[in-house]
Please model this.
Amino acid sequence: MSSNDRDDYNPAQHARLLAVARQSVEHGLIFHRELEIAAEETDPELLEKRASFVTLLRNHELRGCIGTLESYQPLIQDVAHNAYAAAFSDPRFPPVERSELDNLTIHISILTPPQPMAVVSEQDLLTQLVPNEDGLILQDGRRRSTFLPSVWESLPTPREFVGHLKLKAGLPSNHWSDTIRFQRYRTIVIE
Model:
């Protein structure tokens, strides 16, 4: 099994990733940059290149979410980077303040490598999607957007999910073209 095929991590690894995410936010409040991780002090499995998203919630409300779609750095560093970015660089929210720290909940989504989907129509796409399991990347020209599988909670039908994903990319919800492409992925969620 290659590292990108891993479908779970052990409880100690979950705890380490959550701690690193929180420490990166705390570090950012003091030093205005993400936490750097010492490789020699890290579980080798957390040094494998993986893509992740870090979602911050305050009182069960979204407070920031930033991630990467392609694996390019060690998972533990990707989590540190995305936690910092979710706290301080999500354009939808002002930077996190120290007074919010105790009320922040952190969710980490580790992505499987995205797989291209062969679709001939929107209806074909809708029938192939697996609600509550598939994350989806849409790309058409320079427009690109993604929804994590957790978005199915608020957009439970494939039609709603895809329509809102198009809107997120700046396209009309009924948009379809010969150049539109989709990739799907799954996630390991740590919270």
In short: The mean pLDDT is 94. The first strand starts at residue 51 and ends at 58. Residues 51 and 68 are 5 Å apart (CA to CA).
